[in-house]
Amino acid sequence: MADKEFIDSALKAHNDYRKKHSAPPLKHNKEISAIAQKWANELAKKDAFQHSQDREYKGGKMGENIAMKWTSSGDDYTGPEPVSQWYDEVERYNYSTGSGPSTGHFTQVVWVGSKEVGFGKAKSSSGKWLVVANYYPAGNFIGQYKENVLKPGTRSSSKKAGKSKKDCTII
C-alpha cells in the first residue's frame, strides 16, 4: 500500500521535475489515490502489468502511469524510483515537434494541465512491486504537447496551456 512516506516522496519527485519544466506543482488527491490503490491491488492480485480501462473521474478522464520493480532481495519501491523511471523518457522527447517515441510517461509527469495526482502501490505474490499514478485532468492530448510539455527553463506564455479538450484522443 502507498503509505504517507511513499506518497509524499513521489509527489515531491513529480514536483521537482515539473518545476524544471515550468509546470505548476501537482496536489495530492486522496480520492484519486484510492482509485490508484485499487488498481495497484488488482494488478498485484493478478500478477499483471497493464493500464486500467476505467479512468473516469468527475466527468473527465484521468491519465495513468504504471511502473514495476522486482529484485531478488525484495527491496522496497521508494516514491522517487518510478517517477525517475517515467521521467527518464525525456531523452527521447523532441520539443520542436512536440513528440517522441515512447515518451508518454514523461509527458504525463510534466504536463502543465494536470493539477492533481494520486498513487497506489502493491506487491504481488511473485514479489513484484507495482505502482500506479493517476493524474487529473489527464495529459497527453494530441495537438496540445507544445503548450503542455515545456522545455526546461522556459515559461508558458500560452493561454491554451493546461486546457483539455474532451474530444481529443489520449495516448
From TrEMBL:
SUPFAM superfamilies: PR-1-like (SSF55797). Residues 5-143 form the SCP domain. This is DgyrCDS9876. Residues 152-171 are annotated as: Disordered. PANTHER family: CYSTEINE-RICH SECRETORY PROTEIN-RELATED. GO terms for cellular component: extracellular region. InterPro entries: Allrgn_V5/Tpx1_CS (IPR018244), CAP_dom (IPR014044), CAP_sf (IPR035940), CRISP-related (IPR001283), SCP_GAPR1-like (IPR034113). CDD domains: CAP_GAPR1-like (cd05382). It comes from the Eukaryota. Pfam families: CAP. PROSITE patterns: CRISP_1 (PS01009).
